Amino acid sequence: MKKIITSVNAPAPIGPYNQAVLSGNTLYMSGQIALDPKTGELKTNSIAAETEQVMKNLEAVLEAAGMTFDNVIKSSIFLKNMNDFSKVNAVYGSRFDEATAPARETVEVANLPKFVNVEISMIAVKQ
């Protein structure tokens, strides 16, 4: 059975999907971009600020499911420009202990929703 997870502290979906779906103990989180859930504005001043907002949005969804970044087992990072990798990685990496960090891929893409520079999705498991 699946349970829809939502948080008012993360942007509402802009299409036919949910912020996350909990199936058993596994949380499948939709990709987040740098939309500020309070203002609806994109935070794209810098790639670091953009990534910080993405991580805050992901954290809000994790919290709504009773989880933290410690529960994340897989991340997917989509970048518009691979030259931003080190800056994105620094912000992303600040949320994880390197020894127990989740599996991950990072791919460069032609474009992303609302023409942002980074989108991140995650899978988490409640132990």
TrEMBL record:
Domain of life (superkingdom): Bacteria
NCBIfam families per the UniProt record, alphabetical: Rid family detoxifying hydrolase (TIGR00004)
PANTHER family reported in the protein's UniProt record: 2-IMINOBUTANOATE/2-IMINOPROPANOATE DEAMINASE RIDA (PTHR11803), PROTEIN HMF1-RELATED (PTHR11803:SF58)
Family matches, as InterPro entries: RidA, RutC-like_sf, YjgF/YER057c/UK114
Family membership: Belongs to the RutC family.
Organism: Zhouia spongiae
Name of this protein: RidA family protein
